[in-house]
Structure formats: C-alpha cells, structure tokens
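One-letter codes give the sequence; the integers encode the fold. A sample entry reads:
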Amino acid sequence: MSTSLIRGRYVIARAGGPAPEVIEDGAVLQRDGVIVEVGPAADLVRRHYPDAELGWRDHVMLPGFVNSHHHVGLTPFQLGSPDYPLELWFASRLALRSGPW
C-alpha cells in the first residue's frame, strides 16, 4: 500500500457545517487514493511515515471536494460523461455537446 501526505498552508476541513475547521500547516494523508486522515502535517508525519510528501507551503486545500453541480434533469453521468476529476469532466462534457464550434 502506498501512502502520501499532501501538505498545504491551510486545509479546510468539515466545510459542510456552520463553520469550517481551518488547519494551519495541515495535510491530507491518503492511502492508495483514499483519504485516510486530515490534520496537522507534523502530527500525520510522526504517526504514519508516508512514502511521499506533496503540496506546497502556500496552497489552500479542500480535501474530498466533489463536483455535484449540474443544470439538466439528468446527471452528467447519466448522459454519458464519466465521473472524472473536474478538469477532465469539463472536457468530456464539451465533447458530448452537439453543434458546430
């Protein structure tokens, strides 16, 4: 199993509630593409010994962000656009549109 620590100057956690938790010098620990834990970077390094460290000291992170926004009656997935990361999702949606560009 591969683990990596993605660091940021600020990690915004639990953003769905009335007040998000902001962790300064925070990090996201992921194992095989799944978020395992979010917290202070030093604490996560000390307890988990990640295989790699990524990120940048000036980044702001919002882990687990999901693109759930659409304007049509059917979801983009139902219309044939796979559940890609947001940047690839835009391209796949544009490819499904008809008309001369």
Notes: The chain is about 20% helix and 40% strand. The chain has two domains: 3-61, 66-101.
